[in-house]
UniProtKB/TrEMBL annotation:
Transmembrane segments: none annotated. Residues 7-199 form the Ketoreductase domain. SMART domains: PKS_KR (SM00822). Belongs to the short-chain dehydrogenases/reductases (SDR) family. GO terms for molecular function: oxidoreductase activity. This is Sugar dehydrogenase. Keywords: Oxidoreductase. NCBIfam families: PRK07231.1.
Length: 273
């Protein structure tokens, strides 16, 4: 896609799922990619090993395509980590042109049982983490007096309520105005900010249903196009929004959801005939 080759890109949560596919796609398009991974003391050893294994796999694929890339550690819940990640990326790649705010988590609980810790964790990673990464990226774009692009990986739950996932739905709702407010504030300085809103996508986040035919059929039964999306489909739209092909798009969230945000229950008219 036009305008991606030789750009310097940072992808948060780049070690698995959608973030990994985005990092690989940018690499294939000739961008230099900083792949963020989390190394938090709260993580179990097994999770840790899987993250590194995924990063290695991701890095190898990018290398094969000939793009330069680095691995950068940061827990996006931690401001100091984010600052260090940005400094490392700028130093190692020679600058930053594109930030992909992809890192995200969710946790399930009846809302009346949701603890402050559970609530804060999701909001801190998903909403505050995206804000802090965007702030650091914008500071760099402004200091260098150069254009930049930010993509916020939102969700259909930016629009669709998600019972038992209150903080997740709230964090994705917040992303809408993170995207819109930053887009308006910095449009005059050549910075574009957009969102991508995936529907149900086959990634580790959805381990609970992707390998269970019954649960998967239940999920996919809600989707007008009749199937879950792939990480690669999310990556294609993300890279498009960062490219020169999308130079006139800012402040928008593009839902990539097989029609999930089209009120699927209204497929057949039910109230007017
Ligand atoms: P995933 O679990 O595979 O990826 C999430 C990534 O975020 C992982 O690489 C993880 O290590 C990273 N991460 C989590 N907490 C972090 C932290 N504190 N610091 C740094 N990195 C951290 O799931 P995914 O489906 O690829 O999710 C990617 C994004 O897409 C998320 O923002 C998610 O909300 C969004 N999304 C996913 C779906 C879906 O159906 N899979 C749907 C809508 C939106």
């Amino acid at each position: 896609m036009n305008g991606i080759r030789d750009k310097n890109v940072l992808v948060t949560g780049g070690s698995s799922g959608i973030g990994q596919a985005i990092a690989v796609r940018f690499g294939l398009e000739g961008a230099n990619v900083a792949i963020n991974y989390r190394k938090g003391e709260e993580e179990a050893e097994a999770t840790h090993a899987q993250i590194y294994a995924a990063i290695e796999e991701c890095g190898r694929q990018i290398e094969t395509a000939g793009a330069r890339h680095i691995l950068v550690q940061a827990d996006v819940a931690k401001e100091d980590d984010i600052r260090t990640m940005m400094e490392t990326t700028v130093r190692e790649l020679g600058g930053l042109d594109i930030l992909i705010n992809n890192a995200g988590i969710q946790s399930a609980a009846d809302s009346h049982e949701l603890t402050v810790e559970q609530y804060d964790r999701v909001m801190t990673v998903n909403a505050r983490g995206a804000f802090l990464c965007a702030r650091e990226a914008i500071r760099h774009f402004l200091a260098e007096r150069k254009p930049g692009v930010i993509i916020n990986m939102s969700s259909v739950h930016q629009l669709i309520p998600k019972p038992r996932f209150l903080s997740y739905a709230m964090s994705k709702g917040a992303m809408q105005n993170l995207t819109r407010s930053l887009a308006l504030e910095y449009a005059g300085r050549g910075i574009r900010v957009n969102g991508v809103g995936p529907g149900a996508t086959v990634t580790p986040m959805n381990q609970a249903w992707i390998d269970d035919p019954e649960k998967r059929a239940q999920v996919e039964g809600h989707i007008p196009l009749g199937r879950a999306g792939t990480a690669e489909e999310m990556a294609a739209v993300t890279v498009f929004l960062c490219s020169d092909e999308a130079a006139y798009i800012t402040g928008q969230t593009l839902f990539v959801d097989g029609g999930l945000t089209l009120f699927p229950d209204f497929r057949s008219a039910w109230s007017s005939e």
